[in-house]
Specification:
The protein has 8 helices and 6 strands, in the order E-H-E-H-H-E-H-H-E-H-H-E-H-E. By secondary structure, the protein is α/β, with parallel strands linked by helices. The protein has one domain: 3-Layer(aba) Sandwich (Rossmann fold), CATH 3.40.50.300. The protein has a 6-stranded parallel beta sheet with strand order 2-3-1-4-5-6, covered by helices on one side. Strand 5, helix 8 and strand 6 form a beta-alpha-beta unit. Helix 3 packs antiparallel against helix 4, helix 3 runs parallel beside helix 5 and helix 6 packs across helix 7. The chain is globular, with a radius of gyration of 17 Å. The two termini are 22 Å apart. The C terminus is likely disordered. Keywords: ATP-binding, Kinase, Nucleotide-binding, Transferase. It holds the Pfam family dNK. One of its GO terms (molecular function) is ATP binding. This is Deoxyadenosine kinase. It comes from Steroidobacter denitrificans.
């Protein structure tokens, strides 16, 4: 990636969200590079229960989810301990999505226990200046998961991704806590294609409030 001066942005905290395989972490990295900002990642590879969860969801759903909850709240508490206006930050998750996953993967009794823990440990998470929600069909997600080749992710089932897609769609249908950019990421490659990324960055810098939709043109890589 070539070196350029940081892009000036009105946003102090930008969050990229979306289901597994949609490219949120890659986009968050590129935005952080453009802004010369701090990057906040959920670091799924540190979760010792994740591989077991994807292999047999019922055997590890609760410990996997609690690990993520503790990890995310620690990171957000660190943000709270510093002046949010000191620097621009880009993150690849919303704390709100922790409950989204919990509702999806836990049974009724496990979720009741999770809610008790959440109420005790969840910090008052900073409100983003912009949330970017990436969407793509399940077939695209499965293809990207296969191509990136993370071993434990290869056990993810189509049905799980379909339920996850639906949960994200419901969540963001009513989301109004921050400005929201909903992006069709099915054909674009924001990580590797310069034109795709430049066009998205232009949209990101324009948004100050409200709900917006962005459907990029077919990637130049496919021309």
């Amino acid at each position: 990636m070539s070196e350029h001066p940081p892009v000036s942005t009105p946003h102090r905290l930008v969050v990229v969200e979306g289901p597994i395989g949609v490219g949120k972490t890659s986009l968050a990295r590129r935005l952080a590079h453009s802004f010369g900002s701090e990057l906040i990642l959920e670091q799924a590879d540190e979760n010792p229960f994740l591989e077991r969860f994807y292999r047999n969801p019922r055997s590890a759903a609760l410990p996997a989810q609690l690990f993520f909850l503790f990890q995310r709240t620690r990171q957000l508490e660190d943000i709270r301990q510093h002046d949010l206006f000191d620097t621009v930050r880009v993150a690849d998750y919303l704390l709100d999505k922790d409950r989204l996953f919990a509702q999806l993967i836990l049974d009724e009794k496990e979720f009741a226990l999770y809610e008790q823990v959440y109420a005790r440990v969840a910090v008052d998470a900073p409100t983003p200046d912009l949330v970017i929600y990436l969407q793509a069909p399940v077939d695209v997600l499965l293809d990207r998961i296969e191509r990136r080749g993370i071993r434990y992710e290869q056990k993810i089932e189509r049905g799980y991704l379909e339920r996850l897609q639906e949960a994200y769609a419901r969540f963001f249908h009513d989301y109004d806590a921050a400005p929201l950019l909903i992006v069709n990421a099915a054909q674009a490659d924001f990580a590797a294609n310069a034109r795709d990324y430049a066009q998205l960055l232009e949209q990101v810098l324009k948004i100050h409030h409200g709900r917006h939709y962005y459907n990029p043109l077919k990637s130049a890589a496919d021309d």
